[in-house]
């Protein structure tokens, strides 16, 4: 049994086609078919049902599939371990970024990493902080920039890189706009426009309101802070968001720092507590920690 046979088998299963699998593996289609036939003869079982328009697993193939995946994964892990021992960084880097975050030059970080480690395939995905934390814990992500409230997530290493006040943004005509601050209690009965649950800013607001003994009256949610500003600018409610976003729209809106209590929202670089899932992940953490100042 050869590794390439397992690779061809997995490609056919995922593509459900010998032709597409061959294109994916950059080999001729007859070569893929021949190698899988040899694998089936060696195992004494047909692994694939070729009768229909799409290739399907036989019962034997379904039984064999997880073992083939495990074998290929073990070989990949062994190669990465040897690369790490030799001081090389290869493989993949899975980076998560909280949606609509722009305070850290992520593009510059990724470009610097790519110049230093050109053989690493970089994958970047955006999601809510809750989803990113789950991805770090289950090994889908090596490192992520997440937004948090007062409490940092357990089970992860974190490095806080942004710490900002949470403000209430109102139109200039709003009675609250006469000052520079607003007590949290004064927002109790106001319609609020907020980031969705799972974001650091929303978590901070919900925690503060719970401690004050009431639930915020959230009437509108949007994942993009700029959309919150647009909605508040139309007089549809009070936008609760990190201070920098309100400052950018100072002509249309007035940002009032929320006090009694003051609420902070933080962005942190996070990675698994033991270590990132790969040498590439560790290399990225080292680079980010050297370039991005901590608070």
Automatic annotation (TrEMBL):
SUPFAM superfamilies: Periplasmic binding protein-like II (SSF53850), Winged helix' DNA-binding domain (SSF46785). GO terms for cellular component: protein-DNA complex. It comes from Streptomyces tubercidicus. Residues 1-58 form the HTH lysR-type domain. This is LysR family transcriptional regulator. InterPro entries: LysR_HTH_N, LysR_subst-bd, WH-like_DNA-bd_sf, WH_DNA-bd_sf. It comes from the Bacteria. Belongs to the LysR transcriptional regulatory family. The keyword Transcription regulation applies. Keywords: DNA-binding, Transcription, Transcription regulation. The keyword Transcription applies.
